[in-house]
Amino acid sequence: MNDLNIYLTVGAILFSLGLYGVITRRNGVAVLMGVELILNSANVNFVAFARFGGMNLSGHIFAMFVIILAAAEAAVALAIIINLYNKFGTVNVDDARSLKQ
Amino acid sequence: MMTFAPYFLILPLAAFAIQIFFGKRLPRKGDWVSITAVGTTLCLAIAMFVMMLFLYEPGAKAEQSFEWFNLGELSVKIGVLIDNVTVIMLLVVALVSGLVHLYSVGYMKDDPRYSRYFGYLSLFTFSMNGIILSNNLLSIYMFWELVGLSSYLLIGFWFEKDSAANASKKAFLVNRVGDIGMFIGIMLFFTATGSFLFSDIFAGVAAGALPLPLLTVAGLCLFAGAIGKSAQVPLHVWLPDAMEGPTPVSALIHAATMVAAGVYLTFRMFPLFTPEALTVIAYVGGVTAIFAAIIAVTQNDIKRVLAYSTVSQLGYMVMAIGTGAYVAGFFHLTTHAAFKAALFLCSGSVIHAMHHAYHKLGDHDSDPQDMRNMGGMKSKMKITFLTMFMATLALSGVPFMSGFLSKDAILAGTLSFATHHPEHFLLPLFGFGAALLTAFYMFRLIFMTFYGKPAKQEVLDNIHESPATMTTPLIVLATLSIFIVYTLPYINPFSDHGWFTDLIVATNSVVPQHVNPSAHEIAEGIHHAHLPAMIISLIVAFTGIALAVVIYLKKKFSAEKLAKNLALPYKLSFNKFFVDEIYDRFLINPTIKLAKAVGFFDWEIYDKYFINGFGRITERLSRFIGITMDYDVLDQQIVDGVGKSTRFFGGALKFIQTGKIQNYLVWVLGGIIIIFIIQAM
Amino acid sequence: MSLSDLTFFFVVALTIGSALYVVTSQKLVYSAMALFFTLLGIAGLFVFLMADFIAGTQIVIYVGGILVLIVFGIMLTNRISDVRLSHTSMQRGVGGVVVLLIFAGLYKMISSAPWYLESASAPESSVKGIGKLLMIEYLLPFEVASVLLLAALVGAAMLSRKSKS
Question: Which of A24, B214, B226, B562 is found 20 to 30 A from B456 (Cα to Cα)?
Fold first, then answer.
C-alpha cells in the first residue's frame, strides 16, 4: 500500500496503545514496554515521511538515532528499575512514591 | 613684581596647614615654620619695596585677572593688583607680622597651644595679604571674612577665660553687622557694573552706571564694612574687648593691620564716594576720633588705653579720607602701624614682666594690666621704656617723629575742608581735640607706668627686662617711628614731602558730573592749610603733654579730685559713654526678650497645641487605621482571607496529589485533549 | 487486492494486535513475547516503506538487544520460578477514555491535514546513502550519539551495581 495516511494511522494506534500501557501498567518493566511502543510509533512516522514526504534518507537517519536513543534509554531505565527493586522490594511504580528514602 | 604675588599667599597658608596638622609634633612645636614663611614674605616685600623705590614711578601698576567661574552670561573674574599702595601695605603687614612672630616666641613660650597660635598667626597673614593683593571686591570680601575668622580665633585664643570667649564672639558678631552692609554694597556695584574688578567698577561708575543717590547708598554700604572692621562708631565696641587676646595679637591684628583693612578698603574705593557719602565718612571718623580719645583718658587698663587710642587713630584716618585728604589717611595708616604696634608690644613687655613678678610673689589676684599697680618701671626696663617713649612721642604728634607728619597732614586736610565748607567746622575741632587728648592720655600712660612710685615695692623689685626676642621687635618698630624713614631723600622734619608722598598720589574721583573736587584741588587746599594746621597741632600736642606732666608727673592737681569735680564727664568717659550698656539695653535685651517671647510662643502655643495637636490627630487616625482598617478589615478579611482561601483550595486539591506518576500523566493528557478540543473548535 | 497488499494488512494486523496484547496481558512474560511480534511487525512495515537498513537495524537492536534487556529486567526483578508472573493494571477506565480521545484527536489531524507529498523513486539500497549521510552530514550527531551510548553504559552500570553499604 502506498498511502501515507495508513502508516500514520498505524503509528497513531501504536502511540495510543503505548500511552495506554504507560498509564495503566503498574510494573515498571511493562511501563518501559509501553515507552518502546511509543518510540516505535515515532519511528514508523519518520520512515513513512521519508518515503512519501520527501525527507528521503534523512528520515532514516532520524529513525536510527531514535533506535540508538531507545537502546540507551532501555539500558538506563532497566538499571533504575533494578535499583528500585533493590531498595523497595517491588517494581511497582505507584508504590515508589516517597520523595526520599 | 607679579611673580612674587603668589608666595605672599602660598607661604603663610602652607605654614598654617603645617602648624594645624603637624605643629605639635615638630621640633620647637613648629614655630620656625611660621617664622620662616613670614620671614620669606618679608624678604619678598622688602625686595618689592626696593624695586618700587628704584622705579620711583607714582603710576606703577601691575594687574592680572583671570576668570574664576562662568555661569552662562555671568562671568566672575578675580585677580591680583600690585601698585605702590599694595607694596607699602605688603611691607607693613609682612614687617609687623614678622616682628610679632618673633616677639611671640618669647611671649607665648609656655602656652600649651603654642603651635596653634602660630598657625592662626599665619592664617591671618595669609588672609591679610589676600585683601591687599586683591583687585576685586569679591576676593576682598572672602579674605575680609578670613581675617575676621583669624581675629575671632586669636581673640578667643585663651577661650578658657569667659571674658576672652565672649570678646571673640562679640568681635565676630559686631563685624558681621558691618559685613552685611559691605556685602550689599558689593552686590549693588556688581549689579550695576557686572563685574567685581576695581577697574571695571570705576569705569562703570564713571560712565554713570549708578544714579547719584544710589551711588551714595552703595558707597556707604561698602563703608559699613570698614566701620565694622576698623571699629568706627557705632561698631567700635568690639575692639577694646578684643584686648582679651594675647598682646602680640593685639599689636598685629587689632592695632596695625587688620583694623587698618577698613581704612585700606575705604582708601581703595575713594573714587567711588559721592560728596554726601564722604561727608558721612568724615563725620563717622571725626566722631570716632574724639569719642575714643575721651574714653581713653580715664581707662586704667594699659591695653584698653591703647585700644581706644587705636580706635581714635583709625577715626583720624577715616576722617582724612572723608575730607578728601586720603593720601594723608593712608600715610597715617602706615606710620600708625609701626608706632602702634610698638606701643602694644611694649605694653606686652610690661604686662609680661608684671605677670612674672606677680607669679613669683604668688599673687594671682592682682591685674597685671592695671596701670595703677605699675609705676617706676623706667629703671628696670630701659629698652621697653625708651622704645615706648619714642612711640608715644610719635602718636602724640611731636616733631621729628613720623606721627607728627601724618597727623599734621590729616589735620591740614580737615582744616582745608572746613575752610571750603564752613558748615563742617566741627571736623577740625574733633581732630584737634582728639590730638590734645591723645597727647594727654599717652603721657598719662607713660607717667603712670614708668614714673612715680609703684603700688608695691616688692613687685617692682621682681620686674625684669624681657628677653631679646621681645626687645628686638620693639627697637625695630621704634626706629620706624622716626620721621626720616618716611621723608627720604628729603630731611625736613616739618614737611611730609618724601618718597611716600611722591609715590602715593591721589587719584581723581570717578563720580560723574564732577561733583567732587579733583585731586589737584584737594592737594592745593591741603598745601594752603598746612602751616596753620601744623602750628595748631603743635600747640595742642604740647598742651596735652603739659597737662599730663602737671597732673601725673608733678602731681600739682590730684587726678581723683579732678574726677570728682568733673563727675559727669568722668563717669561718661570711664564707662565708655555707656555704649555697651545702651546696646545691652536697647538692642541685646530686646532681642533676648523677643527671642524669649518667640520661644514661648513656639513652645507653649505652636509646639503644645499645633505640633502636639498634629500628633494627637495622627495618633487617632493611626489608631483608626491600625485597629479598624488594618486589623479588622485588611488583616482579618484580606490577608487572612488569602490564607483561608489557600487552605480551602489546598484541602480541595490535595486529593489530586496522589504521588503516582501515572495519575499525573492522565491529567497531562487531559490537558492535551483540552488543547485538541480548543484547536478543533 | 494483490499479494503484497494482503501481506501488508497481515503485518499491520500482527503489529497492532500484538501491541494490544502487550499492554493488556496480565502476564509479564507474555507481554514481552507479544512485544517481540510487535517489533517484528514494525520491521515489516519498514520493509514496505523501502527502508531496508532501518528494518535490519530494528531487528538487530530491538529484537536482539532491547527485548533481551527487557526480559533480563523481568527476570532480575521477579522470582524466575514463577512463570506466570502476573502484573496488575490501574485506572483502566480513565486511561482508556483518555487514550481513545487522544487517538481521536490524532486521527482527525492525520485525516484532515494537507500533508506535503513527494513521490520519490525508491532507492536501490539505502545503506550506501545512509552511510554517506552519517559520515558527512550527520557526523556530529553520530559522534554525540556514540558519547551518549557510552554515558548510558556507564550510567546503567553504576546505577545497577550493588551498593557497598
Answer: B562
Calculate mean pLDDT across residues A9-35.
Answer: 90
How many contacts does A have with C, using Cβ atoms within 8 A? 230
C94/B666 touch (CB, cutoff 8 Å), yes or no? yes
pLDDT at A12: 93
> Model's pTM, two decimal places?
0.65
Among residues 9-38 of chain A, which lie with CB inside 8 Å of chain C?
Answer: 9-10, 12-21, 23-30, 32-34, 36-37
The predicted structure's pLDDT at residue C83? 52
Asked if the Cβ–Cβ distance from B665 to A22 is below 8 Å, we say yes
Q: Which tops the pLDDT comparison, B89 or A98? A: B89
Model confidence band, residue A14 (pLDDT cutoffs 50, 70, 90): very high
Helix locations, B233-301, DSSP H? 238-241, 247-251, 258-268, 275-298
pLDDT band at A100 (very low <50, low <70, confident <90, very high): low
CA distance C48 to C25: 29
* Contact residues, B window 622-681, toward C, CB-based 8 Å cutoff: 660, 662-663, 666, 669-670, 672-673, 676, 680
- Residue A1: band (very low, low, confident or very high) from pLDDT cuts 50, 70, 90: low
CB atoms within 10 A of CB B633: 12
Residue C80: band (very low, low, confident or very high) from pLDDT cuts 50, 70, 90 = low
Structure-block grid coordinates of residue B410 = 590729616
Cell numbers for B459: 613687685
Chains in contact with A, where contact requires at least 3 CB pairs less than 8 Å apart: B, C
What's the one-letter identity of residue B45? A
Tens digits of residue pLDDT in A44-94: 999 988 888 777 788 888 999 999 999 898 888 888 888 888 777 777 777
Q: How far apart are CA B97 and CA B477, in angstroms?
A: 12
Burial of B56 (0-12, 13-18, 19+ CB in 10 A): exposed
**What is the arithmetic mean of pLDDT over A8-35?**
90
Quote the crossing angle between the two packed helices B426-450 and B402-420, to the nearest 10°.
160
- Torsion, CA B119, CA B125, CA B127, CA B130, rounded to 10: -140
Alpha-carbon gap, residue A14 to C22, rounded angstroms: 11
Here the cell at position B49 is 619695596
Helix (H, G, I), strand (E, B) or coil at B348: helix
* Nine-digit cell string for B208: 554713570
A29 contacts on C by Cβ (under 8 Å): 28, 70, 73-74, 77
CB B493 within 8 A of CB B402: no
Are B676 and C101 a contacting pair at CB < 8 A?
yes
Pairs of residues, one from chain B and one from chain C, whose beta carbons lie less than 8 Å apart: 23
Judging contacts by C-beta atoms under 8 Å, the chain A residues touching residue C80 are: none
SS (H, E, C) B294-315: HHHHHCCEHHHHHHHHHHHHHH
Q: What residue ranges do the domains of chain A occupy?
A: 2-92
Of B85, B177, B119, give the one whose Cα is nearest residue B503: B85
Instruction: Give me the CATH topology for the region A2-92.
Output: Helix Hairpins (1.10.287)
B656 DSSP 8-state letter: T
Length of chain B: 681
- Give the whole-angstrom CA distance, residue B648 versus residue A72: 45
Residues of chain B with pLDDT under 50: none
Please check whether residue C102 touches B, CB under 8 A: yes
| pLDDT recorded at residue C85 | 55
Residue numbers in A near C158 (CB within 8 A) = 79
Helices C3-24 and A4-24: crossing angle in degrees, nearest 10, is 10
Instruction: State the nearest Cα–Cα gap between A53 and chain C, in angstroms.
Output: 5
Has residue C95 got a pLDDT over 70?
Answer: yes
Query: Which DSSP helix (H) or strand (E) runs through B417?
Result: helix B402-420
Q: C134 Cβ partners below 8 Å, 6+ apart?
A: A61, C142
Question: Which secondary-structure segment (H or E) carries B67?
Answer: strand B61-71
